[in-house]
What does this fold into?
Amino acid sequence: MDITLFHASLLLFTGFIAGIINTLAGGGSNLTLPALMVMGMPAEVANATNRLGVVLQAITAVFGFRRHGKLDMTDTGPIMVPTIIGGLVGAAAAAYAPSSWIKPLLLGTMLAMALIILLKPAAVAPEPGTIARKVADTPSSWWGLGLAGFYGGFVQAGVGFVLLAALAGTLRYDLVRANALKMLCTLMFTVVALILFIYEGLVLWVPGLILAAGTIFGTHLAVKFAIQASAKTLKWFLFLMTLCGCIAAMIH
It folds into this structure.
């Protein structure tokens, strides 16, 4: 696929914005997927190629949060298992299911998350000082994480919201630590999905890597902001990004 200067600039810019959005909330793929499809990619190829940027941005975020001591590793094993299993099943579904399923699933997720933030904000933004729970002590979290993994493997766009609902809502991590764990979970199940998409020959490397360069820079800045921002600021950012996700899902 030939890449013009316009396409390269578009991918870098949307990747940069998506890196910020995905690190602090979710839904950045609502920008990157249309940018890839503008280049003439079919939806399933754009969906697969987008995962390159997601993987590299997640690596950047994980190392950034860990460097600042905000990545809680005490319960990562039990958190990772259901998300990886869900991601594998979701990626298989994305590779073989009709692409027409993506929009209703995306819109439903965004609307549900917006309602939760409006009606029960404490569910996704626990008060500072709240003690996090372990997966072993919260059986419902296993299913929530598995569902998040499936959604991420299948759609990717908006998966951050689903993960935050499980990590902050069910396990009661504060938003900064929930975002750090969210990026670790995203890394794990997206690697699984990306391997499957590469095997199916759906990934276009050059546009995917250009997009990834933008996401890495955006993620680097977003981690610094997340460490310094107040819980209230992060909560409002999450709410605004959810509304934007709803609008994007209805327009696409």
User: Anything to note?
Assistant: The chain is about 75% helix and 0% strand. The two ends are 23 Å apart (CA to CA).
